[in-house]
Write a structure and sequence with these properties.
By secondary structure, this protein is of the alpha/beta class. The chain has 13 helices and 15 strands. The structure holds zinc ion. Zinc ion binds at residues 55, 57, 117, 195, 216, 267.
Length: 359
């Protein structure tokens, strides 16, 4: 298959062609210079790398109902929030099925990877890994040990299976706990992450100490806090739909102005679908609604480019020969970043691995 149109990858927007076969890019270059000379099926539109959903709690997919009213803290706070009651009361097999269902839907939408905060200790990460078996989605699992004070045997076992550790917040864990977990992650070559300034504004020196590899939310952080985060070069995952459900919104343009690398996530699967395309559209439109517009280019980076770098796979954000096939959307290739952010949808998508050889 030959794709012709706009390419939106880590190397910047441009027009060009890609020759794609068996899920790989074989050739790339200027339109009209491909080796097939009209002997292969052509598709026009916009090509992007696979998006990454950079913040989920897929275990919550077991709760399919409208979230009750009230502050988010009452719903997701460990250990008595509704979320933790649902996790505790749902049988493991039902949770695994719910997680797998969410993964299947993400794959259908073309998502390439997900970064999940998985509660419930070692068993929680085991459940996530077993739900992901046989799936093409890359699942980056950040687990959470259960015992306090820290039990080193539990942490070691967790880090053998997980890609790192994510705690709920600096407010809910002592400095001693956080620093021991962060140290264990470093020693194992893995990642340490946490939510910050979500329920209340937290002192920036607390969540930056020890330095995390990823922060989530920060919509209650003030300008000085965000400057400190930018200086510490810590990327931030934002989840506008989840925040909006509880009456809040991250100021994405401000994050960008201060130079904070942004990633985009869909947060708790009990609040919203894990669709990164819907998150993109909402992020853009809600920023306009608040008269704090955000450039489509920033959102494209947050969904398709920056997270692959964070995952240590910048190659997966490039559309070059040898790279995996991109996602193609049958959309006009004019102003492609705006098109992708506001109009990309599953029914406009071509998954090139479904098209093999010459047609
Ligand atoms: Zn979260």
């Amino acid at each position: 298959m030959i794709f012709e149109g706009a390419l939106l990858d880590l190397d910047g927007p441009r027009r060009g062609y890609l020759r794609i076969d068996r899920g790989r890019i074989l050739e790339a270059g200027a339109i009209g210079t491909d080796s097939r000379r009209g002997r292969e099926r052509r598709i026009r539109g916009i090509a992007v790398p696979r998006p990454v959903n950079a913040h989920t709690h897929l275990g919550d997919a077991a709760y399919p109902r409208e979230p009750p009213p009230g502050p988010v803290s009452r719903i997701v706070a460990p250990p008595h929030g509704i979320k933790f009651r649902v996790l505790a009361e749902t049988p493991a097999a039902a949770k695994r099925d719910a997680i797998r269902g969410a993964m299947v839907r993400m794959e259908r939408e073309g998502t390439g990877a997900v970064i999940d905060f998985r509660e419930e200790g070692l068993a929680g990460v085991e459940l996530l890994r077993s739900a992901a078996r046989g799936r093409s989605l890359t699942v980056f699992a950040l687990g959470r040990p259960l015992r306090r004070p820290i039990d080193r045997t539990e942490v070691r076992a967790l880090l053998r299976l997980a890609d790192g550790i994510a705690v709920s917040s600096a407010r809910e864990e002592s400095y001693a706990t956080r620093s021991e977990l962060a140290r264990a992650c470093r020693a194992a070559g893995k990642r340490y992450a946490l939510h910050a300034s979500e329920v209340v504004r937290e002192p920036v020196e607390e969540y930056l100490r020890p330095r995390p590899d990823l922060l989530v939310h920060l919509f209650r952080a003030n300008e000085a806090d965000l400057r400190a985060v930018a200086e510490a070069k810590v990327p931030v995952a934002v989840c506008p739909r989840s925040n909006a459900l509880f009456g809040h919104a991250p100021d994405l343009a401000r994050f960008d102005r201060l130079g904070i690398p942004l990633l985009l996530g869909t947060d708790n699967a009990m609040f919203a679908s894990s669709s990164i395309l819907r998150e993109l559209e909402f992020a853009y439109v809600s920023a306009r609604l608040r008269r704090r517009p955000v450039a489509p280019r920033l959102l494209v980076r947050a969904a398709f480019h920056t997270p692959w770098g964070w995952l240590g796979r910048p190659d997966r954000a490039r559309l070059v020969p040898g790279a995996p096939a991109p996602l193609i959307f049958r959309l006009p290739d004019e102003d492609p970043e705006y098109q992708i952010v506001t109009r990309a949808a599953e029914h406009l998508m071509v998954l090139p691995e479904r098209h093999r050889g010459t047609r």
